[in-house]
Amino acid sequence: VAEGIGRADVLDRGYVGHYPRTAQPGRPGNVALAGHRNTHGEPFRHLDRLDRGDEIRIETRDAVHTYVVDRTLPRTTPGDGGVLRPVPRSGVLPAYGYDRPGHYLTLTTCTPAYTSTYRLVVWGTLRSVRLR
Q1: Domain with 86 in it: what CATH number?
Q2: Catalytic residue positions?
Q3: Dihedral, CA of residue 121, residue 119, residue 85 and residue 131, to nearest 10
Q4: Is 95 domain-assigned?
Q5: Distance CA 95, CA 72 (A)
Q6: pTM surpassing 0.70?
Q7: pLDDT tens, residue order, the chain (132 aa)
Q8: How many domains does one find in the chain?
């Protein structure tokens, strides 16, 4: 995971990008990450296969943070900034998202496959932190 979501310096180099001004792993708020689905290493190639209950682990220098998938927004506009807020909720489809502060993970990628027309959003909540 690299800091930022610039295409040339992060995403097109095959990294998952951390959205600026979103939380760091394990911290309150929303850890928001973006990645390509069909090019440049395809780190989010199968993001659409994640199901409720699946675990996502983010390892940092100090800890392993385990998030559990609990919601998916199958399609929204590329400019739906609500999904990146500290309490993520779609600004386009407000039935999708959360209502109260917590420890969230947001993963975003383009959809449908091989296009950049819309964004797929997968959300999870923090289950555990294991210190190293």
Answers
A1: 2.40.260.10
A2: 36, 110, 119
A3: 40
A4: no
A5: 11
A6: yes
A7: 999 999 999 999 999 999 999 999 999 999 999 999 988 889 999 999 999 999 999 999 999 999 999 999 999 999 999 999 999 999 999 999 999 999 999 999 999 999 999 999 999 999 999 999
A8: 1
